[in-house]
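Pectate lyase (Massilia eburnea), 396 aa
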Amino acid sequence: MKRCLFLAAALLSAAAALPMPARAGVIGRMTPAEPLTESRIASIADAHQRQAWHAYLVRSQAAMAADKAALAAERQPGVAPPPASAPGSPKSMPLQNGANWYATAEARRVADNIVSFQTPSGGWGKNADRSGPPRRRGQAYVEAEGKEAWNFVGTIDNDATSTEVQFLARVQAALPGGEGAAYRAAALKGIQYLLDAQYPNGGWPQVYPLQGGYHDAVTFNDDAMVSAIEVLQRAAARQGDFAFVPEALASPARAAVQRGINAILASQILINGKRTAWCQQHDAITLVPVGARNFEPAALTSAESVHILQLLKHAPGQTPEMKAAVEAGVAWLRSTALPAPGGGKRWARLTDMASMQPIFGDRDRSIHDNVDDLSPERRNGYAWYVASPAKFLDEN
């Protein structure tokens, strides 16, 4: 797999096209990521790879059709379905409580909610309150956020699916025997979902079955892909809460972890021959950097790169390439540290790949070099600066 390579000439050309004075207004426009389509797959030169990608897309389309058909079968024509579940967060699925808590009625109520909202494909939606009542027949699988579209129905965004699987693993460990059987079955189905969602090149889309748009890109944003790999690492190890995972599932999990790490290594951006960091999203097929949401242009990201580096540093089976990737990533973080107000250091969430200066995006896809030029909603509604690399660098 070829590493993402940015030639100095290309970067200089891009920089010349979009000059960056000290207080420019709009310095560029964000380009949305391309979805995974048959036409894009048809352009893949290698026949074996082309076949693998085609099979993946067909499988994804079939999975979405099955999910939709299952929900439709629960609904009656002319009868309004139950309202969508209340919004929430992964905090409704605590993973750090003592082992005995996971055998309590409170924990089982959360687990029952999780099992009930699992999609036929095996994943879960995001931003749901798992402490609420179980899903009712005909109720949407996801918290709808006021949208009627099929949206984030199975995702690894915002810790979704990875948290559900881990919570179920904790509950089943506290309930050996028949009491934990339903939770074990749902957790295993969730692990299989992660395996099914992995791209042939080792990356993961944000949403599976594929939703289209930027959701199809390989997603490091908000630690989505790292979280998926970490769950599969636990499944592969078959220890602790994941000791119940059969070898028949642990074996493909090990292979998926290795493919995921290979994709991470291949995605690390080279600029002027030097490895740097990663972007929030990379193209599904080529792994080149791509934009995410309208205000997230293709750029090196500090926060997500820290968690990628932590994964690489602590992964078993260390290789020279993994060690070199971590060393280079650490060096890049040190080189991009900025003074923080009041002392200490901070990092821009997004760093331009040509100038190595902070950049900021707005909802209209405009790119700026000064956070104060953003609309108030975006200026105050996104973590444009982070301090998380500091602790990691202190330990490295």
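The chain has two domains: 1-30+268-396, 35-266. The CA atoms of residues 313 and 326 lie 7 Å apart. ok done for today
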